[in-house]
């Protein structure tokens, strides 16, 4: 028994089960304790690493498990940053991102080089030990190289505080996108500086070096930019299993990191580029995104942060005056230069103070690239002491100062980011209220019958939901024990449970309803009435015989009996693989009650999957859509083409491609925009668009005197 106790409680802890349990308790305790004192969780995890690590209480050792999970966590942060970036906003703000990236690189490089050369030069090479210089450089030349290397550490930054942005839901803010774009520019340039300095110290910089480096980077960019999208498109179209999709994405991320490393770039750049590439294949509200976000923020990223804390040796800094001076100078210059770059960017583009604070918060934290640079600088030998001891380019004092700088900058970054995120989310809520002309509810009903279409119907319904809506999805199964052609009670239960499982993977709830009725249409109509349903999403009817209509008698009767917006969805591929939405709108659609509502729903889908939108409509209708796009900030690339006559509908056959989603806005017979040519739509769709995904959309239509009225069957 005594031996068992010694094995479990000998410090540092070596039992893998106990190590994992301790880390999980730390991850659990951080938010519970720090929420009370309003300290960001990230700081708690780093401080926990300081206290529990070998330089603290010695409870945990930074072994291979922490290095492995830490590497995964760092790549995960960069991958999520690329994955959650609003590419449309990024393209719109690309000039600002480039400006900020160059500024947040140049300012720290200038201030860092000057301050290091004049304030820290006596700390290089172990405080000026007596040693013999090796190689072709003089001592002063090595001081210049060391100063440039430290400056490159200031210029780079790690998105330590990015999880805070995700927690507050402001990842789409333009300041965040500018910061992410600038991060990649500044970090890439600083890592190139690092690679060049290392090559110079080793005497490898020549024309062949630059040719080899440029070629490797081009090959890496071609693989990520052209091969990855083709692989993702093919995989997501043919594999709907959520576990396989998650493993596929992780494999692509770490392969991308390895490819970047082979191209003499840091793996974090590869992970970020993979995130950008897969961005449009993974909707923000989807089971896959929910799993990626959950696993990263629950396990991998906290492990990385705890591992960073375990590197910090506070005692070594305060026991040595030179280390303390290095820590103070480096912490001040790093934070001040990043703050100055953020202020320059904010004033240049007339951004708000909150946006400037967000840019500073995201760009101030030093961790991954900084650690890589200082460790490499500490490993480069520039000479030997008379005793034969190797002398590094960056001495122990600079190394200790860097570790403290990481803690200080991460702390400042976390506080600044959280403060900015709180203010920005309040501003965004106020803006949303001003832009909303009407309170949009979304009680979406999904009649479930065919298990083959259930996944696609749930996927579409989740994307349709209004942002921040608390309403559940309503799944309905009509059952009848005595009618063979209707869903049995057991089958209905299984379908509803499956629908609930799909929704729960996206943090959405489902209200499961089973209704016993001999008439499917009347069962749906009564459910709509009792639950105040606002829209219905249903699958396309499969014809049972030659005389059966294209939509089916049940659907035809439902459209006659209701006024709610109804979408009839024919899916041939996952909606996440759709690249463009082509919307055909009939003349006078702008006069319908549901005009703004269906526009908002199309906008929701397009924003979630990052698809372009092409509107086909009559000139007057296009003018009204233009107004909605400008007023409601559509947020995705939008095109407009005239379709003067509905008889020309077949021109869309040359426009709708393999990866397009066709949305046909039609109407009921009593509606103002109804056209007798709508009767031909079923034959057109079945003949010319059967290999495309499409939605037949029937907008809201209410009686003027009694909006809540229902027709009778």
Short description:
The chain has helices at 2-9, 16-37, 41-52, 64-83, 87-92, 94-119, 124-128, 139-155, 162-168, 174-201, 207-238, 242-262, 267-278, 287-310, 314-318, 321-348, 353-364, 368-379, 396-435, 451-464, 489-504, 520-531, 553-561, 595-609, 619-632, 681-688; strands at 132-133, 381-384, 390-392, 444-447, 473-479, 510-516, 535-539, 565-570, 580-584, 612-617, 638-642, 660-665, 693-698. With 713 residues, the protein is α/β, with parallel strands linked by helices. Helix 11 packs parallel to helix 13 (267-278).
What does this structure look like?
With 713 residues, the chain is an alpha/beta fold. Helix content is 60%, strand content 9%. The chain has helices spanning 2-9, 16-37, 41-52, 64-83, 87-92, 94-119, 124-128, 139-155, 162-168, 174-201, 207-238, 242-262, 267-278, 287-310, 314-318, 321-348, 353-364, 368-379, 396-435, 451-464, 489-504, 520-531, 553-561, 595-609, 619-632, 681-688, and strands at residues 132-133, 381-384, 390-392, 444-447, 473-479, 510-516, 535-539, 565-570, 580-584, 612-617, 638-642, 660-665, 693-698. The strands form two sheets. The chain has a ten-stranded mixed beta sheet with strand order 6-5-4-7-8-13-12-9-10-11, with helices on both faces. Helix 8 runs antiparallel to helix 18 (368-379).
């Amino acid at each position: 028994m005594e031996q068992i106790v010694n094995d479990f409680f000998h410090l540092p802890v070596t039992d893998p089960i106990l190590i994992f349990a301790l880390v999980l308790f730390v991850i659990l305790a951080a938010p519970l304790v720090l929420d009370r004192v309003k300290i960001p969780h990230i700081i708690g995890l780093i401080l926990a690493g300081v206290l529990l690590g070998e330089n603290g209480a010695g409870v945990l050792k930074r072994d291979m498990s922490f290095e492995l999970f830490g590497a995964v966590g760092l790549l995960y942060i960069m991958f999520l940053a690329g994955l959650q970036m609003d590419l449309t906003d990024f393209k719109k703000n690309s000039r600002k991102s480039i400006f900020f990236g160059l500024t947040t690189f140049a300012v720290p490089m200038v201030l860092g080089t000057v301050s290091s050369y004049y304030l820290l030069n006596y700390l290089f090479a172990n405080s000026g030990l007596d040693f013999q210089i090796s190689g072709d450089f003089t001592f002063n030349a090595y001081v210049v190289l060391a100063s440039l290397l430290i400056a490159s550490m200031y210029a780079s930054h790690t998105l330590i505080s990015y999880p805070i942005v995700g927690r507050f839901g402001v990842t789409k803010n333009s300041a965040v996108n500018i910061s992410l774009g600038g991060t990649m520019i500044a970090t890439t340039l600083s890592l190139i500086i690092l690679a060049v300095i290392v090559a110079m110290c080793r005497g490898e910089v020549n024309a062949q070096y630059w040719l080899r480096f440029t070629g490797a980077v081009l090959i890496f960019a071609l693989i990520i930019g052209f091969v990855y999208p083709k692989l993702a498109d093919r995989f997501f179209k043919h594999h709907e299993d959520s576990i396989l999709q998650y493993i596929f994405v992780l494999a692509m991320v770490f392969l991308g990191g390895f490819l970047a490393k082979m191209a003499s770039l840091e793996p974090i750049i590869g992970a970020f580029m993979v995130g950008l590439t897969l961005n449009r294949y993974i909707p923000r509200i989807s089971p896959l995104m929910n799993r990626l976000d959950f696993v990263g923020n629950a396990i991998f990223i906290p492990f990385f942060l705890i591992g960073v804390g375990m590197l910090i040796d506070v005692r070594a800094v305060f026991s040595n005056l030179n280390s303390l001076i290095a820590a103070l100078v480096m912490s001040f210059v790093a934070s001040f230069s990043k703050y100055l770059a953020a202020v320059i960017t904010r004033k240049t583009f007339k951004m708000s103070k909150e946006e400037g604070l967000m840019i500073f918060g995201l760009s101030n934290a030093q961790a991954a690239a900084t650690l890589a640079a200082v460790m490499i600088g500490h490993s480069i030998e520039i000479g030997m002491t008379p005793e034969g001891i190797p002398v590094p380019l960056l001495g122990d004092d600079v190394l200790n100062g860097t570790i403290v700088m990481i803690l200080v900058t991460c702390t400042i970054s976390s506080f600044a980011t959280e403060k900015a995120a709180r203010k920005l989310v309040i501003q965004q809520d106020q803006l949303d209220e001003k832009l909303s002309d009407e309170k949009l509810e979304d009680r979406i009903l999904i009649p479930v019958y065919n298990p083959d279409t259930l996944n696609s119907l749930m996927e579409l319904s989740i994307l349709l939901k209004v942002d921040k809506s608390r309403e559940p999805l309503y799944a309905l199964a009509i059952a009848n024990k005595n009618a063979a052609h209707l869903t049995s009670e057991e089958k209905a239960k299984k379908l509803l449970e499956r629908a609930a499982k799909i929704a729960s993977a996206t943090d959405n709830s489902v209200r499961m309803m089973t209704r016993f009725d001999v008439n499917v249409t009347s069962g749906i109509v009564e459910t709509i009435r009792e639950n105040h349903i606002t829209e219905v999403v249903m699958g396309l009817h499969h014809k049972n015989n030659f005389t059966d209509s294209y939509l089916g008698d049940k659907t035809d009767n439902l459209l006659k009996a209701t006024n709610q917006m109804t979408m009839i969805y024919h899916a041939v591929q996952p909606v996440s693989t759709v690249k463009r939405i082509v919307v055909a709108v009939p003349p006078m659609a702008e006069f319908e009650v549901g005009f703004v509502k269906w526009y908002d729903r199309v906008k929701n889908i397009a924003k979630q999957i990052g698809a372009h939108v092409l509107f086909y409509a009559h000139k007057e209708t296009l003018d009204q859509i233009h107004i909605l796009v400008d007023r409601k900030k559509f947020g995705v690339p939008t095109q407009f083409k005239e379709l003067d006559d509905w008889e020309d509908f077949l021109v869309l056959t040359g426009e709708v491609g393999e990866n397009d989603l066709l949305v046909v806005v039609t109407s009921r017979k009593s509606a103002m925009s109804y056209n007798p040519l709508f009767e031909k739509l079923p034959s057109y769709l079945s003949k010319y668009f059967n290999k495309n995904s499409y939605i037949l959309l029937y907008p809201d239509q209410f009686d003027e005197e009694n909006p809540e009225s229902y027709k009778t069957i």
